[in-house]
Write a structure and sequence with these properties.
The complex is a heterodimer of chains A (464) and B (108). Chain A is an alpha/beta fold. Chain A has 13 helices and 21 strands. Chain B starts with a strand and ends in a 5-residue tail after the last helix. Classes of the chains: A alpha/beta (464), B alpha+beta (108). Chains A and B meet through loops of A and helix 2 and helix 3 of B.
Chain lengths: 464, 108
């Protein structure tokens, strides 16, 4: 069924457990969409990270096809060269590019990987990959000043996220959320649009900053703590703001509420470079590779590359890189041994015991096995420690392989595979639950709702 | 010697569109210049593409000049012109973003 307009409300990291099922919060506006329409868990891409997940969602293509495997990607086979993957890294057309070229008016607010802003047939306010608001983060350029006059200074993201001052952090997350919805609401009222998409990042920031206070399953949860209800209160506040946008959107508008991935309690961190060193795959020039007295960032200049077969980069998932002869500057794994070595490494990572002595439940993925194409330079292995229950720690000098502290500061949550998909397209689906939805299905769905045949190359299927 | 590619632009405000497109191409390291022609404007650029091409473009009156220029750049890419996008960060800006992503936990 074609609609006149499509509104996509993105809630980064919104978790199915808080929207669906027994633990769902009371969210009348969002759940009203579910009751009138359809809903389900939305399997994210691999890796389930903001970049490239939103780009995968809106292009209908997997990370390999995009050549984007995270916020930073190798630019070559040196030991340190990484480039930040902003909008320039996304060469595939996203749904709004296609709609723009068909003469549809589009408005985008805060969608990840839209800075620097490319021209669209409409208006674009970019994301937190803009360095600051002095940069040209809007299209057209004049929109920046227009917004400032109308809604005030645009907030790119939450400042000082690693603060231990949790009340102040919570205030800043709320400020970000309201700023995003204020911006979206003003644009909705004042600019003509056929396709409108906004992404609210505060949910993600809230999860990472406060999960241990709200989830009794978190290893650091303390009953009766003062932040036990922040998740419910925040989701309710978001729902109120969603309700306002639904009022503005009016009839003949299909509405989608989606997230790029979910979240779960972080059990701890795996010091992957230390593990590699302990297994003989990575050799440091000096003992431990870190400064005396504590952890230090992984420093390629401290590695004996001629004796190193693999190294890693950390984050919510782990990236393993193999030091291949003829590929890396001082590679030692013969090209002919690359696959057997990678297989060996994957199996050993997956067999890694956790602190209890039982296998941690790691998953090691080869890009060539999971993507339709592999463009750019992917990691040689993508690793989910403890099935995403554990963070990958790349720094060295930790007392052991497993740590309960993050290397970049307090962080209570990791990402999870499933986000949410909720859609009211006016077809009266009456609360139909959908299954096996994948993130690449969203772009074809949006296009189909607007009467546009999804172009060849999109890897998902429309669900309308 | 590389052959030129020409885009013959017709419609409303072809000069403005051609100038915008030329500017964007120059930013990406591609030599391009807008030249008035009797029935519109020519966007002439040097390219490694060996086949001499004249690409006709009729501007959509509903497009802004900016967006029309973007569509011309798309057309050039579809016709084999290698156009590298720039990430647009100064070293200071890149460090600011790196620090922000690290602070947010995405990278180390």
């Amino acid at each position: 069924m074609n609609v006149d307009r499509v509104l996509v409300i993105g809630l980064d990291c919104a978790a199915p457990r808080f929207m669906f099922g027994n633990e769902a919060f009371q969210l009348p506006n969002i759940q009203g969409l579910m009751e009138r329409g359809c809903w389900g868990r939305l399997r994210s891409c691999d890796p389930p990270i903001t970049a490239p997940a939103w780009a995968c969602m809106m292009s209908g293509k997997d990370p390999g096809t995009l050549g984007c495997y995270g916020f930073r990607n190798r630019t070559g086979y040196s030991y340190g060269g990484m480039a930040i993957a902003n909008a320039a890294a996304i060469r595939e057309k996203r749904a709004w590019d296609i709609l723009s070229r068909l003469g549809k008016k589009v408005v985008l607010v805060g969608v990840p990987q839209t800075y620097p802003p490319a021209p669209v047939n409409g208006w674009l306010v970019a994301d937190f990959l803009a360095p600051d608001t002095r940069a040209d983060f809007t299209y057209p350029r004049a929109l920046k000043d227009e917004l400032r006059g109308a809604v005030g200074e645009y907030l790119l993201d939450v400042e000082n996220f690693r603060s231990d001052d949790k009340p102040a952090l919570l205030e800043r997350i709320y400020a970000l959320m309201h700023n995003r919805f204020d911006t979206a609401g003003w644009l909705m009222k004042n600019k003509p649009w056929d396709f409108f998409m906004m992404v609210e990042m505060g949910v993600d920031r809230l999860h990472h900053g406060f999960w241990k206070y709200c989830d009794p399953g978190h290893p650091k949860f303390e009953p009766g703590n003062p932040f036990a209800n922040v998740f419910r209160e925040y989701y309710e506040a978001v729902d109120d703001r969603v309700g306002e946008l639904l009022q503005l959107a009016g009839g003949d508008t299909a509405v989608l509420v989606v997230s790029d991935h979910g979240a779960k309690a972080m059990q701890g961190g795996v010091c992957i470079n230390q593990w590699l060193a302990g297994q003989g795959y990575l050799k440091f020039k000096e003992r431990g590779g870190g400064d005396a007295g504590g952890p230090a960032a992984f420093d390629p200049s401290r590695v004996e590359w001629a004796k190193t077969k693999a190294w890693a980069a950390g984050g919510y998932y782990g990236r393993i890189f193999v030091n291949v002869e003829g590929r890396e500057p001082e590679g030692i794994v013969p090209a002919g041994q690359y696959e057997p070595f990678r297989e060996e490494l994957a199996r050993r990572i997956e067999a890694m015991p956790g602190p209890s002595g039982q296998p941690l439940g790691n998953i090691a993925l080869k890009p060539q096995d999971i993507y339709r194409q592999v463009k750019g330079i992917p990691p040689d292995l993508i690793v989910y420690f403890g099935d995403l229950g554990w963070r990958a720690i790349g720094s060295v000098g930790h007392p052991g392989i497993f740590t309960s502290e993050n290397d970049t500061g307090p962080d209570d949550a990791n990402h999870d595979y499933d986000g949410i998909f909720i859609m009211d397209d006016g077809c009266g689906r009456g609360g139909e639950q959908l299954h096996k939805l994948r993130i690449g299905d969203v772009a074809p769905t949006v296009l189909a709702l607007m009467g546009v045949e999804p172009p060849e190359g999109m890897q998902g299927r429309p669900v309308c | 010697m590389s052959e030129n590619i020409c885009v013959q632009i017709k419609g409303e405000a072809p000069n403005e569109v051609a100038h915008i497109a030329a500017e964007r191409l120059l930013e990406r390291g591609i030599n391009a210049v807008a030249q008035p022609s009797p029935d519109g404007c020519l966007l002439v650029l040097e390219s490694e593409n060996k086949s001499k091409k004249v690409l006709p473009v009729e501007l959509d009156p509903h497009d802004t000049p900016d967006f029309a220029a973007e569509k011309i750049i798309d057309l050039l890419a579809e016709n084999g012109l290698a156009i590298s996008e720039t990430s647009d960060y100064t070293p200071e800006e890149e460090e600011e973003i790196r620090r922000r992503l690290q602070n947010l936990g995405y990278i180390e």
